[in-house]
Amino acid sequence: MNKLFDGKKANMKKKVAFLTGVTMAAGLFAAFASTSAFAADNDNMLLGNPSGATTSTSNSNNYLMTKTQYALSYNNSKHEANWVSWHVGASDLGSTARQDDFRADTTLPSGWYQVGASEYSGSGFDRGHMCPSADRTSSVANNSATFLMTNMIPQSPNNNEITWANLENYGRTLVNAGNELYIIAGGYGQGGTGSNGYATTVGNGVVVPAYTWKIMVVLPNGTNDLSRISTVTRVIAVMMPNNQTVNSQPWGYYRTTVDSIEAKTGYDFLSAVPTTIQSAIESKVDTGPTS
């Protein structure tokens, strides 16, 4: 009787151990699957999560929001994104007209302040897209999503409409030439100069950045994108002042290194790329064509 009981108890322990192992393995797989290593080609965060943003509402100044059109880290204290990340390829560019339907992002957590469409009115700063409207012209829904105010930061008109816009246009030129791009953009510092002069905030405390930055990883069209990034992959990084004299120089003048932007922002860009390759491509200033 005791031997039979002991045998059943031993078998039960084996089953518990097996199930525990399966549960742990599943948990580990889920954790790994949420990283860029398991992200699909064209995923907006394929190259990494620069600030380690999470979907916990307690992480209110580094809150991860993922949309079909882009992903972002939202800062509830600044009322704007820390960064916005997206992929753009030929299939993203179509003939859809600009929707111009600026609006609050109602998907923000309950109780958080929602920046409205008129928040920047009279401030002398533009509602500056991070993921551009013109990068999402394949459908009305995709274009409309770029007009959510969580995708905006206050940009000086000459930054947004001239120098920054020229860089955006160049990116689409690269796509039309047979490339795909992985892009991350945001603002840095506080205090910029718009058409009405210097300001540190607009509206109800929306922070005006001192600089705008962007990182563009350029790949020929293809598959298995992460594995195709090498030490000679073109990476364009810029940091430009958010003022009204920025257009005195072409966008190429403001090229810098990814390392430099990391040092200023504290973010870790391209973290899904092998470190040896990161070291090479993040330390170089792009010298390629600008038009």
UniProtKB/TrEMBL annotation:
Q: Which UniProt keywords apply?
A: Endonuclease, Hydrolase, Magnesium, Metal-binding, Nuclease, Signal
Residue positions binding Mg(2+): N160
User: What residue stretch is flagged as signal peptide?
Assistant: 1-39
Pfam families in the cross-refs:
Endonuclease_NS
Q: Which GO MF terms does the UniProt record name?
A: endonuclease activity; hydrolase activity; metal ion binding; nucleic acid binding
Q: Which residues form the active site?
A: H129 (proton acceptor)
Q: Which residues cross the membrane?
A: none
Domain DNA/RNA non-specific endonuclease/pyrophosphatase/phosphodiesterase, residue spans = 66-276
The record places domain ENPP1-3/EXOG-like endonuclease/phosphodiesterase at 67-276
Write down the EC number.
3.1.30.-
> Which cofactors does it use?
Mg(2+)
Q: Which family does it belong to?
A: Belongs to the DNA/RNA non-specific endonuclease family.
**Family annotation (PANTHER family):** ENDONUCLEASE G, MITOCHONDRIAL (PTHR13966:SF5), ENDONUCLEASE RELATED (PTHR13966)
What protein am I looking at?
Endonuclease
What species is this protein from? Tumebacillus flagellatus
- Organism phylogeny: Bacteria, Bacillati, Bacillota, Bacilli, Bacillales
